[in-house]
Amino acid sequence: MTPNRSRRFSASAAPARVTRRRFLAAAAGVVGASAAATSLYAAAVEPQGLAVTRYAPTPAAWPQDRGLAITVIADLHAGGPDMRLEHIGAVVDTANALQSDLIVLLGDYIARYRFATEPVAETVWAAELARLRAPLGTWAILGNHDWWHDLARVRSALAEARIPILENKAVMLRGGAAPFWLAGIGDQLAYRLGHGRYRGVDDLAGTLAQVRTDDPVVLLVHEPDIFTRVPARVALTLAGHTHGGQIRLPLIWPAFVPSKYGARFAYGHVVEEGRHLIVSGGLGTSIIPARLGVPPEIVQVRLGA
């Protein structure tokens, strides 16, 4: 006698009727489980990753016989839960392994928001950035979070790390026998005036006025919105700030892109009227410690041959 088997196979009643209420309840359970899993991934998995994204633009203002490789590090936002010291170390190691001619830092070095659980002191993250190595050096600009929180300490930390800040300044660099200009502008959101209004310290015209030869120009900006005013004289503009939207979901993105142009300058390689812009998705997080659809990245740009 096999009571368990007979019990298992004796269920000959008609299948339960699937009502609309049952269907919706089941669907809600699936959606809820999916949302929970997605939230966990966005908070605990994706922010811990690190990708290298490569671009090879061909701007008309850059001579194609001049080769130059640039590594771009944007929006570090040092601090836990997602940009702890060990992650910053991995960023530096990965950047050095790319062996670019030049490394540029595009601002927002600190994390100051409600969910920042593990502060990383300015002297500590700067000491890690001091390990960056490139033949033409490491150069920095400042971002809005640097202006809004501990500006003096950020300046001091970068100075201690011997990383010069280009703030409305242009310098000539020589990649082999081919000189070019590296220019950086001040932050466009430096002072919060309230009600969504800001006053910047950017001086695009004054910065480009320092370019005294016909050699090509690479421009560093934190916020990409200024690209509408960048002249064709500039071969390439490099920007951060947007985090690519940080949370990139269908039907919602680009709602979280901090740009008055929405998706226009949210992420990636943008070409308008022959002018070239590359916007990095950055590394850290802001407002909430989560990323989805925009993993942390280091960008490498190759110009010319």
List keywords for this structure.
single chain; 305 residues; alpha/beta; six-stranded mixed β-sheet; five-stranded mixed β-sheet; 13 strands; 24% helix; disordered N terminus
Description:
With 305 residues, the protein is α/β, with parallel strands linked by helices. It is 24% helix and 21% strand. The chain is built from 7 helices and 13 strands. It has helices at 3-9, 20-45, 85-97, 122-129, 144-148, 151-160, 204-208; strands at residues 51-55, 68-73, 102-105, 138-140, 169-175, 178-184, 191-194, 197-199, 217-220, 236-239, 268-272, 275-279, 297-303. The strands form 3 sheets. It has a 6-stranded mixed β-sheet. The protein has a 5-stranded mixed β-sheet with strand order 1-13-2-3-4, with helices on one face. The protein is globular, with a radius of gyration of 24 Å. The relative contact order is 0.19.
Quick overview of this protein structure:
The chain has helices at 3-9, 20-45, 85-97, 122-129, 144-148, 151-160, 204-208, and strands at residues 51-55, 68-73, 102-105, 138-140, 169-175, 178-184, 191-194, 197-199, 217-220, 236-239, 268-272, 275-279, 297-303. The chain is of the alpha/beta class and 305 residues long. The strands form three sheets. It has a six-stranded mixed sheet with strand order 5-6-9-10-12-11. It has a five-stranded mixed sheet with strand order 1-13-2-3-4, with helices on one face.
Structural class: alpha/beta
> Which consecutive residue ranges, at least 5 long each, have pLDDT under 50?
1-44
Number of helices: 7
Number of strands: 13
Helical residue percent band = 10-25%
The side-by-side strand order for the widest beta sheet comes to 5-6-9-10-12-11
The portion of residues forming beta strands comes to: 15-25%
Rounded to the nearest angstrom, the radius of gyration is 24 Å
* Principal-axes shape call: globular
Biggest sheet layout: 6 strands, mixed
Q: How widely separated are the two ends?
A: 82 Å
